[in-house]
Design a protein that fits this description.
Blueprint (H helix, E strand, L loop, with lengths): L19 H21 L5 E9 L8 E6 L38 H21 L10 H28 L1 H13 L21 H22 L5 H39 L12 H17 L7 H9 L20 E9 L5 E9 L4 H26 L24 E2 L5 E2 L1 H7 L7 H10 L30 E3 L1
Antiparallel strand pairs: 1-2, 1-7, 3-4, 5-6
The structure holds fe (ii) ion (2 copies).
Length: about 475
Amino acid sequence: MTMPDYDEKIPNNVALADDRRLQRALESWQPDFLTWWETMGPALPTRDVYLRTAVSVGREGWARFGHVPMRDYRWGIFLAEPNPDRRIAFGRHKGEPAWQKVPGEYRAELRRLIVIQGDTEPASVEQQRNLGATAPSLYDLRNLFQVNVEEGRHLWAMVYLLQAYFGREGREEAEELLHRNSGSADAPRILRAFNEETPDWLSFFMFTYFTDRDGKYQLGTLKESAFDPLSRTCEFMLKEEAHHMFVGTTGVDRVVERTARVMVENDTDDVAAHGAIPLPVIQKYLNFHYSVSLDLFGGETSANVANYYTAGLKGRWMEERRKDDHLLTGDSIMVDALVDAPNGEQSIGQAEVSALTGLNTDLRREYVADCESGVKRWNRILEGAGLAHRLALPHQAFNRKVGAFAGIEASPGGEKLPAAEWELRKGQWLPTDTDKTFVRSLMRPVYERGKIAAWLAPPRAGINGKPFDYDYVHLS
Ligand SMILES: [Fe+2]
Ligand SMILES: [Fe+2]
């Protein structure tokens, strides 16, 4: 069960060969996927890339590394080890055996959850399609492509579930996942953050830090699902996701490190003249990516999410480590809200709601705490360089389009602002056209082994024990 079979046309550890109907369905989807990859995937022509491929789903040694042409990457279907005694950990069905099939009553909801998750995977590949043209080093180029092929595999993971468990509707959804495209006018991706472009590498590092991290938390809730194939799928996806988090975290580290160094060496804040990215610009990019990623968690309260929880479809982050009854019917939670102020206006505050309807807030809170740890890291780099400047996460009301604060404007400090003042000041807080043009002007490709762009520090170590100056990518 553990070892993926690479002799198969579609590598898998789900005994695909024993289910001819499903095998045929997936094999007929495969050419459409490859066409999508060729037209919407990485645009830079390459001969081969030093990539890791999953070879087992166990804890140890699950990956193999080697130079492969990206088109020949073995996208496949890998589920974490089954636990035959697994029981549902929460909700109305708590204590019952996990489901190996989709219960009819939850079919539509489960399909919807899988489609929404599945839609984000190819979307990010589309968003990052042109980044290869401006890669700051071969090491970074390789990491970009690694993230891209794994997001492609995550699409396979969701398409497998749709085709294996949801019949004709599942097959139609699988087609739609290739038909919708990031930023498309007629058929956009489902969530807003996945229709924004990723035009430069600062955006890419911020995206992999903040937006991929949202994915980590969503997968964490689906890993708890009573629907066992979904749970096992997400558990293995989370292993791959760890590398995406690493790319974002260390990417921003290295931008900050380079900027700090140029500031110290030249005794100036004006690092733009020296080809580095000024700290206020880094802060604006952070503000943007953090705020659009907060929107991905949905409204502070949600009746749908309460129902998903009670039904056992989607749990909480680290559900089994929580010390409560895992039913939450009598509990409450404080959530962000607009509240009536004494002057008759509405102000930024909190309101108490039932714990079940506040589950989006519970998940967002876990995410925010995780994001804080990144900011701490980056501030340690500044502190270590002897600089007084600090980065910060903006207030949760800042630049929101979803949830309690969608209808108001607020400063990064959390002060509610009249719309006119927001218009005047937003350029201090979000990247302006000038900022974006400047960042783009730094984006020149560096394809020489061991060389790196001037705005970025080299990594502390290479990939899989290889040095930084390894030939990670062969261009064609
Ligand atoms: Fe993913
Ligand atoms: Fe990811």
